[in-house]
Amino acid sequence: MDQAKHFRFSDYYRHTLHSLSCNRRLQLAGLLSLLLASPAFAQTAATAKNGQLLLRSANGEQQQAVLLNTDVSMDISGLSNRVRLRQSFTNDSPDWQEGTYVFPLPEDSAVNKLRLLLDERVIVGEIHERGVAREIYQQAQREGRKAALVEQQRPNLFTQKVANIAPGETVTVELQYIQAVHYDSGHFSLRFPMTVTPRYIPGTPLTGLSAQSFAAPNHWALPTTAVADADAITPQYLPPSASNPLTLTVHLQAGLPVSNVQSASHKVQKKALGTGNSEFQLSLQDTGTAMDRDFELEWEPQAGSAPQAAMFYDSVGDATFVQLMLLPPQVSAALPHVPRELIIVLDTSGSMAGTSIAAARQSVELALSRLQGDDYFNVIEFNSNYRSLFPVSLPANAYNIRFAQNFVHNLAAGGGTEIYPALAQALVQTPAANTETALLKQVVFVTDGSVGNEDAILAMIKQKLGETRLFTIGIGSAPNSYFMRKAAETGRGTYTHVGTLDEIAPRMETLLYKLEHAVLLDAKIQWPAGVVAEFYPARVPDLYAGEPVFVIARLDGMLPATSEFSVSGLVAGQRWERQLKLSSLPPAANNRLNDSALAAYWARQKIETLQDSLRTGIDAAQVRNDVLAVALPYQLLSPYTSFVATETAVSRPGASPVQSAAVRNQPPAGQELASEMGHQSLQLNYPRTATGLDRHFLLGLWWGLLAMALIYRQLRHKEWHD
């Protein structure tokens, strides 16, 4: 076989495998799992509808407990959003049940209250160290008392357990959290996630774990060497015909006249309150809305009322908490073009199948079209493996751009999500050797971020970043926003979410303009003498067009009457400085910590900063102690603290057995993989299968034979028609 034929055959081989639809690949995986998986790892078919809990009785038969309602109430005031989330369950089986629910929250949420609602009784939750809280919950469960436990698995992923739900009984768990309102490019916005995209789990099963020894009623993945808590972050999915119903209301007090209050994700009803166009009541137009996509809300200031600065405060005990938003001045669009090296890293894994891959392709094609003649660029696509379009970055001439756009246009989704090697390659890759001028290196990472090994990837970014700037684009109806935002923050770039095809043009235009216009560099905050300030972010990042300075600070002690502080930096190469007064802030009051939104949000940011230090080699035991010193007094959920609520009275008779149930998540809209997993009547351990060495061998042999048979059939078919 000559070289030309060899390359044609390789391309055809690859095309044949990629031509299989995501559905077909999952059907084949399901068939193989049926052949290889043990009975203990299989699950009987169930016809779950309307967000039901899937319950298994003592004799192994499927029972049901209907999820009555999820109710969300938001109260937005200025730059803070206080949210009350209620989940109500009814046990529709004849057995006592324990329900488990893995659910998302905003990645910057500060969860600070838990209540267990039982008929007329309200049980207030308490914050404890994680192990202590779990022991309190388990003891209540054994003793037949009602109990609820909420644990953090990731900053944007939580587990809720409810013990001793009686047959026919309704139990409601209420959480409260605080989040900051986002402001960017003239728009205020917030997001409320409703479901979880399946996360790729790299590594091999931990020693001693197998499908036979590790029953998985509540999840689809086993703990692995790379993701030790894989079972805690991989919830099951409802069939596409079923739904988790939700009601949502919003009270918006913007603090300034606003317009265009709207949701790009859902249809909403809006009612203006008062006469100043600054206060609104909103609700979802559809009752019982399915929880299959993130809820997004946006509003913008009326012309002439856009804020240049905003400051809010809360006083608690001997401290004052200050939240600051400050806009740097606009720069001229006529600034000279800075030659760039743009490397686009595109996720083509199985979780991107559906509308996500279409949105990703269009986003990348648009980014390529904005390159100028003195720029260099490359494209790296990855799934289980990665490949670079060019060996090194090449000039952005018309031929190379057209070649790259054709390459991207023909990409299909399939395989695992091995982000680490692809992103590492992008960070260390260099342009062609004949570049005459220094290039500003920018990496644009396009993905849904659905992985379980976030910390390992973030540590690699910090290690290999150098002078590169990393920008992330989250694709799909329910991306892993925590990972995407944190990757951009670590990479000194920005995060953009593209949820639908309609959002591609406006959101990509905003991002691409930012890539071309860095506004504020080397930003610093100078606090007044005598004021002890602990603020986050401790180092203000580079800011791009339309981005404000956001700071949350705790100020200790009495403030001098003439207190001022300043924010400074370089704007278009010139020094810029803005003075702000603290003298208008009142003396500290005796409010409680967990009643202050700003205190909770400041503590949440400090905890995140402490957790980030683990990636720099700080001792884990020291970080744990430091986090506990913040989370316990501020009563916040964290990796080391949990909320638990227990009833004092015994409600379950001692002889009555308790069964375990899992609340399934809604498949994200347009997400083929999760939708297909909801169809399956067995456990899919995607993308890693929990098998021993002998089963790995059989698995590889089976797939090899299947691939050979498919290729042989396709080649014979092609020869016949040729």
Distance between the termini: 19 Å
CATH architectural grouping of one domain = 3-Layer(aba) Sandwich
Rg from C-alpha positions? 27 Å
Strand content: 25-35%
Helix segment count? 13
CATH topology of one domain: Rossmann fold
CATH class of one domain: Alpha Beta
Relevant CATH superfamily of one domain: von Willebrand factor, type A domain
Give the helix proportion (percent range). 25-40%
What is the structural class?
alpha+beta
Which stretches of 5+ consecutive residues score pLDDT under 50? Answer: 1-64, 681-700, 718-722
Q: Quaternary state, please?
A: single chain
Count of DSSP strands: 35
Rough outline: globular
Main beta sheet: 16 strands, mixed
- Rounded mean pLDDT is 81
